[in-house]
Every structure is written in structure tokens, then in C-alpha cells.
Amino acid sequence: MITILTWISIIAGGLLIILLLLSLIGGLDLDLDVDTADIDTDAGGLGFLKGMLTFVSVSSWVIKVLLATDKHPAIAITIGILIGLLAFALLSYLIRVLLRNDKNVNWSLEDAMFTYGEVYLKIPALEGTGIVQVDINGATRELKAKSFDGKEIPTGMSIQVIDLEGDIVVVQPEKSNL
Q1: Could you count the other beta carbons within 10 Å of the beta carbon of residue 140?
Q2: pLDDT tens per residue, range 152-176
Q3: Domain ranges for the chain
Q4: Which of 16, 21, 31, 125 lies at a CB distance of 3.0 to 4.6 Å from 53, suitable for a disulfide?
Q5: Class assignment of domain 109-173?
Q6: Residue 92: closest CA among 141, 64, 58, 138
């Protein structure tokens, strides 16, 4: 029994690692067409195939280890299933963290209009520019900025984008900062 669980774990884990590496190389999204079946291993939803491989690999390995330490089979199976589910949830979370800035890569400066953000590098008085961070389409963007009224805006202050001048956003301190 322990030998069978070892082989199941090794094969499932090996396939999982191969799929994850192919997903990373292929842009975290890999669609396969096998005869009439369409296999979607989309990393955003982790994919059914990767999820099952994670669960099977981790569960079988934990059950194997617990059986090797002379635990009761019912206890070993229960703990193995719970830890397999935990591993699936953890892998899903880690992949979502990797994809966090993968919202919408198509954006324009006009999307920054009337958004709120924070000064990253201070905006000097009069003609100077600084850098602000604003959330555009789910991702944080750093944009060149200048002050609306020509006053200095220090680093860390909350701002609102109110206008555009070429590739520079015109900002003013957020109303709550005034």
C-alpha cells in the first residue's frame, strides 16, 4: 500500500510540476486540445487538472507517511484528505498572487482622470514634475505628475488626478487633505 501511494504521489507531483512550468513559460495560460476533448489549464482559476493533481499528490504523500508511522488507516486518510485540500487552497492563493496585476494591460492616460492616488516622489512647486501612483484598471501605475496650483505636494500625500497635459497628469491634494 505504501509503495502504491509513493508512486501515485510521485507521478501526480511530477505531472503537476511539468504543467506549472509549462504555464509559466507559456504565460500562465495553457489550453490543450486532445482529439475531441478540450483541456483548459488556466492558471487564473488554477484549472481542474492542476487542482486534482495537487490534491492527489499531497494527499497520497501524507497518507503514505502517516501509514509508515503506524497510524490507523482511517486517521491517515482523513488527515491526508484535509492536508490535500489545504495544499490545493494554498497553491490557488499563490497563483492568484502571481496574477494580481494581470487585470487589464490595455490602458491609456485618460483612464487616470478623476482617480485617486498617492504621491510617490514629491511634486515640486511651479514647473517641476514628480511621480504619483494611481490605480488604473486594477493595477497600480506610476505616472509623471505636476501640481494644479503650482504648490509643492509632499511624498505620501493623497491626490486626485484632475487634468492631463500630454503625458503628464495634473493633480491636486485630495479634499480631505486640505
Answers
A1: 13
A2: 999 999 999 999 999 999 999 988 7
A3: 2-98, 109-173
A4: 16
A5: mainly beta
A6: 58
